[in-house]
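FORM 7B: Structural annotation worksheet

SECTION A. Query
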Amino acid sequence: MSLLIPVVAISMSLSIGGVLGLFAGYYGGIAEALIMRLADLQMAFSTILLILVIVVMVGPGAGTLMLVFGIAYWAVFARMVRSIVLSLRELLFVQAARSIGCSHRRIIFVHIMPNVVPMLISLATVEVARLMVAEAGLSFLGYGVQPPTVSWGLMIAAGRDYLSVAWWLVTFPGLAIALTVLAVSLVGVWLRDFTSPYLRSGQEPASGHRTRVRWRISGRPT
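SECTION B. Predicted structure
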């Protein structure tokens, strides 16, 4: 449950923020201003405080945490995707796609989106690690997962009264959280390097060069 809640929540945030960021960065204008002002409004509030208020109003539980985390973190993805799309939409491969008559939808999802995915993966794994710690803290305080559902934060809360006589009740769930957060972060770095040809080869894309390339077995771009 400690891993399921962050993964589901970040999937929701990634879906909402990614799509809004793509359209805001590509189309610009009123749509971009509206989406970015909503993102600024979202990020102006303390995330943990906002989560606590909603959890107190709705009631604690795993489903509540998934929904609240998913809504609270969409702005992070929207802002990052918009900034990447703003730079990509002016490159030559996007202009070439426009010149041959490609639709806006095809340019966004076929030409631009694959170049955004590596950074999205990296950010998503970082946010999953952060939400694991946040979920453990909320469950420890009694605002997260409720018995009989089990999470590492709830296990630490249950064992804190026996710390002097049974230290392992707190130590091992805490170690599990720390090691899982470290593992998720390392997997995110590997996935970013694996999905980005230029990061994998140590090369930087030239300005105006399309970053989607095919690879031989030797690892050199064709």
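SECTION C. Observations
The chain has a mean pLDDT of 81. DSSP finds ten helices and no strands in the chain.

SECTION D. Sign-off
Analyst initials: ____
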